[in-house]
Amino acid sequence: MLLVIVSGLALGGLYGMTALVYNVMYSTSKVLSFGTGQFAMVGGICTAWLVLGLHLPLWLGFLACLASGAVFGWLSELIAVRRIIAASDEHLWVLSTLALSTMVQEAMAIWWGTDPTPFPRVFPQEFAGSFDQKFWLPLILAILMAVGLEQFYRHSMIGKLFIAMSEDSFAARARGVATDRMRSLSYVLAGVLGALSGFAGGQLTFADFALGTALGLSGFIALAVGGIGSSVCALVGGGALGMLTSLTTHYFGAEYQKTIAIGLLILLLVVRPQGLFGTTQVRHV
Amino acid sequence: MKHSHLRPVIVGAFALFAALLPYITGNLYYLHVATVIGVYWVLIATLNLLVGFTGQLSVGHVGLLAIGAYAFCLLAGGQGWNPFLALLTGGAICAAIGLVLGLPSLRLPGFYFAMATLAFGLIVSELALAEQWLTNGSVGMPAPSFPTPFDTPWGFYWLVLGIATLITWMTANLARLMWGRAMVALRDSTVAAASVAVPIYMTKLMVFVFSGFTAGISGGLYATSQSYITPDAFIVNLGIYFFVAIIIGGRGVIIGPFIGAAVLAAIPELVGPLAKYGTFFYGFILLVVVLVLPGGFGELITNVASRLRREPQVSTSIEPDLVLLRTAIRVKP
Known about the structure:
The complex is a heterodimer.
Chain A: H1 2-29, H2 36-53, H3 58-87, H4 92-112, H5 133-155, H6 157-167, H7 169-174, H8 179-205, H9 211-226, H10 231-252, H11 257-271
Helix pairs in contact in A: 1-5, 1-6, 1-8, 1-9, 1-10, 2-3, 2-4, 2-8, 2-9, 3-4, 3-8, 5-6, 5-8, 6-8, 9-10, 9-11, 10-11
Chain B: H1 6-24, H2 28-53, H3 61-78, H4 83-105, H5 110-130, H6 132-135, E1 141-142, H7 153-176, H8 178-188, H9 190-195, H10 200-226, E2 228-229, H11 236-249, H12 256-270, H13 278-292, H14 296-308, H15 322-329
Antiparallel strand pairs in B: 1-2
């Protein structure tokens, strides 16, 4: 039973981190990217390839993982978001991010193969059952990430600019904020955080090309449960979803794991579209 | 919309070509590809109403396709129903499921709706694997074929062609008349459409249920065309294919997505090495079209055609009828 709870919390941390990545991108661009989960997939595969395939040291793999996330985040803003936002069409970013995410996933499937492969151990620790690093690493990193993001938003200039842009992008631009550069920066940050979540959860999920879609969906559910915009709510939503997934796997078997989680999402969205803790926003005509 | 004399000629010529295709090519494989394109078109034609006209981005129609296929195989194969009755029942089941799925999810804004339908597609493929008593799990099940005149490849091709023509006709009628206006209006501005009394939610729901019905029909035909179905056949990538066909064809044009579907389905089948890169290729095309040509090739063709015809720019001005207005707003003593 302890194992069920611990693995639920670990999954929850992973989902929570993905929800945080959604939040970072949403704050500056109001775009919910389909490719959010792919950051973790690319980062995880990058580390597994460098460390287990090319036998490079782990710290190099870690740095390369973060770098791959940064590059991918920067590119996804440049390719899939910037022009769409400039054209100010409401729906097209769903398509462009879906297209980019599909391309990256398929490219990885062709290059890396479709079988999940193992991920290197991060710390030299014997396998320790419920207290193994593959369970506590994602959880601790998720909490650190949420705390760090909150500090970043409250106490750094760039973080305050992100907040200003999420409140009103035009007003921020009128006050002299370089909104394009800020958006680009927020995508780089999101890419780094996403790759970090892939690194943290690598031992739990393995380096798998299909991880991105699953994680993107679960992270989105966590976000929808918690409500967009808040780091704490993202973590709580992720934790709740992770526990639910783990418990349903334990009691009903792994084949119903998606069905129950997603069914719950749809139910929740019907009852409270703004999320459990979110507040409704009045839209002006 | 302007009526030109060219359009009926093109449509007629294409219909003649499609009807006589089995005589033109003796190659059974090409005939199979043409049949599959027709089967997909039955789904894409009405998905276009949903995605192109109404602007609801449904990624999960592959789930409805799977349900239609399994319903057809279970009813016609396992229960021994008449295949046509089973086909219609499969369509009805999918329409009902579309209603149940649409009731909550159509209230959601764009990305939420896309995610909800994506989730639906994933749930269906997961359940198709898990519920072994019903679907045989990953082993799959054979699909029955249609009775005598339609049991040869030629006969089945003509059956698909007939159904596809019927669906196209229905779709074109819907798009041309009141419903189509309502769909385009609510796609372009939901608030403006609501202010002129377009029933937003009901319109979306009607379109979704109709597209669910034809997705079920398409599923049954798909099962027969493949003659054996497994859960692997209904992966989310197929949903992305439907989607790309509509977007590159052009949103809000009836015939554009057909060209998109035909080209996209034919290229990997006819150029062997591309098959491996199929989905990557779809993603690439989708990205390029969204960035460079948001209206799709349909819009491009329309623009080029009007340029060629040298239609002068027409600007319409509306003169208010002041006398009528004055009598209308005068307060009666």
